[in-house]
Design a protein that fits this description.
373 residues; alpha/beta; eight-stranded parallel β-barrel; 13 helices; globular; binds S-adenosyl-L-homocysteine; binds iron/sulfur cluster
Length: 373
């Protein structure tokens, strides 16, 4: 059974399909992953470094103006202990994620921490950063210190929608976001991006364009998940217009499957926001072609304050019992956890899928028209 996606119409069709077609889509995506990458699922232990953020994204629970929120920053000891745990538990990699800061002390502290983690783990633990927009020099500094992957979601590739979900100021610029992705790729990072699914004002056509966008910039890794409305954010006023959470989950799994067909070699995460809607949401994504899971290994006392969206799972994810369960669930999807491996994506943008590349839509101003690299 071969499914081919040759244009935007096909994408919209598969994003909306149901019943047997949907089953076929998921199976085909899982088979494409297995053919190109094997049935490995890679773990990245997620360390939520701090909820202090200089930005004010209209959807995010840790935005600057959410003032009742108790702000925290992990100590060096806490970060190093979490990294050591991930190394000893054979995760292979960690992700350090945080609210955005670009002051000098933050930049230097991250640099020092990356170096220490590399030393502590005999250079073995892979380090991904997800620390927002920074200048090219900072990205280079952190890369030279030993981080080799970076996640920066575009959130939506439609500039007019990006403007609707961010404040209208220079700190929240779509063009800067694109430039940051370009800088990351130039530094040599395996670069990850992604979008939120089910945003207010978003259409299925937008989501199809998001997938074409990710392909057009030859992204190495993708994390996409459902948008979940947070009551202490301005975008909460748009909640009446949203799809149900079940629909958003379904659409997210379809996005994963379609992306796998478009980009067989990249890493695609089964994101935590899927799990916030359904306890087995991540496993559904694995069964539809995803190959990365990010168990939370943030010290337990800080987790409840890193609430980007509501119902964020706060369970003891890194614990042995939870890992055993996760491993069983992954086996039920006919996959296996690849312990102790970085699991870096292969050459970016490889497509030897029978389907022709999809034709990018007519771009809006500012949208990347040719590959960044
Ligand atoms: N500050 C960094 C990293 C932390 S935010 C950055 O912005 O890149 C990580 C991701 O959380 C964001 O890219 C966004 O896609 C997601 N996120 C934030 N609020 C969300 C919400 N309400 N629902 C779903 N995802 C959300
Ligand atoms: Fe800050 Fe990232 Fe949330 Fe935006 S999405 S407010 S940058 S943590």
């Amino acid at each position: 059974m071969m499914m081919s996606i040759t244009d935007k119409q096909d994408l919209v069709y598969y994003l909306n399909c149901t019943g047997q077609e949907e089953e076929k889509l998921f199976q085909c995506a899982a088979r494409v992953r297995n053919q190109h990458l094997g049935n490995n699922v890679y773990l990245r232990g997620l360390i939520e470094f701090s909820n202090i953020c200089r930005k004010n994204c209209l959807y995010c629970g840790i935005r600057r103006e959410n003032s009742p929120l108790v702000r925290y920053e992990l100590t060096d000891q806490e970060v190093l202990a979490a990294a050591r745990y991930a190394w000893q538990a054979k995760y292979g990699s960690i992700v350090i994620q945080s609210g955005e800061r670009n002051d000098r002390s933050f930049v230097l502290r991250i640099e020092a921490l990356v170096k220490k983690i590399k030393q502590l783990t005999n250079q073995q633990l892979g380090i991904t950063l997800s620390l927002g927009e920074q200048c090219a020099e900072t990205y280079q500094r952190w890369f030279d210190a030993g981080a080799h992957r970076y996640l920066l979601r575009i959130e939506t590739s439609r500039e007019s929608l990006y403007k609707k979900i961010h404040p209208n100021d220079s700190l929240h610029s779509f063009t800067t976001r694109l430039q940051c992705l370009e800088h990351l790729q130039k530094c040599g990072y395996k670069t990850g991006s992604g979008v939120m699914i089910g945003l207010p004002f978003q259409t299925t056509e937008d989501l199809a364009d998001d997938l074409s966008f990710l392909k057009s910039i030859h992204i190495d890794m993708v994390g996409m998940g459902p948008y979940l409305e947070h009551e202490s954010t301005p975008l909460y006023t748009c909640r009446q217009s949203l799809l149900s959470t079940t629909e958003r989950l379904r659409l997210s799994i379809h996005m994963v499957a379609c992306l796998r067909l478009l980009m067989p070699h990249i890493n695609i995460a089964a994101t935590t926001a899927l799990q916030a809607i359904n306890p087995l949401g991540r496993e559904k994504a694995i069964a539809a072609g995803a190959n990365v899971i990010m168990p939370n290994i943030t010290p337990f006392s800080n987790r409840r304050n890193y609430k980007l969206y509501p119902n964020k799972p706060c369970i003891e994810e890194g614990a042995e019992e939870a890992l055993r369960l996760l491993s069983e669930n992954i086996a039920a999807c006919e996959c296996r956890i690849a312990w102790n491996e970085w699991g870096d994506p292969q050459k970016a943008g490889c497509t030897d899928l029978a389907a022709k590349p999809i034709t990018p839509d007519v771009p809006e101003s500012g949208r990347v028209q040719k590959p960044i690299k």
